[in-house]
Specification:
By secondary structure, this protein is α/β, with parallel strands linked by helices. The protein contains 12 helices and 7 strands. Strands 3-4-2-5-1-6-7 form a 7-stranded mixed beta sheet, with helices on both faces.
Amino acid sequence: MGKIIAIANQKGGVGKTTTSVNLAASLGVLEKKVLLIDADPQANATSGLGIDVETVEIGTYQLLEHTNSAREAILQTDTPNLDIIASHIDLVAIEIELVDKDDREYMMKRSLEEVKNDYDYIIIDCAPSLGLLTLNALTASDAVIIPIQCEYFALEGLGKLLNTVKSVQKIHNPSLDIEGLLLTMYDSRLRLSNQVVEEVQKHFNDMVFKTIIQRNVRLSEAPSFGESIINYDASSKGALNYLSLAKEVINKNS
């Protein structure tokens, strides 16, 4: 039975999409069957894997509307063992369209039932908000990974997100776990980066992944070529970081 993991943080620019794409690709390379779901209207995970967003006819929008099944929405990627359900700017409208539906928080959970057993991992790239899209992702997930940027404002808003996770656990999904907090964009030369790492590790102990994602030029370049870091430069620091994270996730779930 596949494990569904949401990558969530309401702050933008913390490395959610980078983590979603590259963790999914790394798990694929490590011979796990993976489905990536792009649940962000900006569709960066979709374009980051070389799919032209304008050509997406069946994607996350149709999945949540229940006009198409999950199987109909799945596209193959160039990365081994990695499929995707793509996003499109249309997804912006879904929060308004679902607002008066019964059980609106469970639309994604129901859609994924039919494919959950086809994959080892299903990774959901969430939008940078705590709206209905993210709520759907958290309700459908077994666990959540929270990326935290190694910068001054990183811890701001973390409490809010942890409260959202708690309320989802209480109301919609009692089995939702925190898979871990992931420190991203780390620069060992900056004192501030080191301070944030210390603070997070001190407060959250075992909840923090041992792997830290370092700032890496190749990691920033890869999406503009429509490739994961694994395809773009497998020997780069970024690729090694995400492979290490994937191994940590596999070990945690073995």
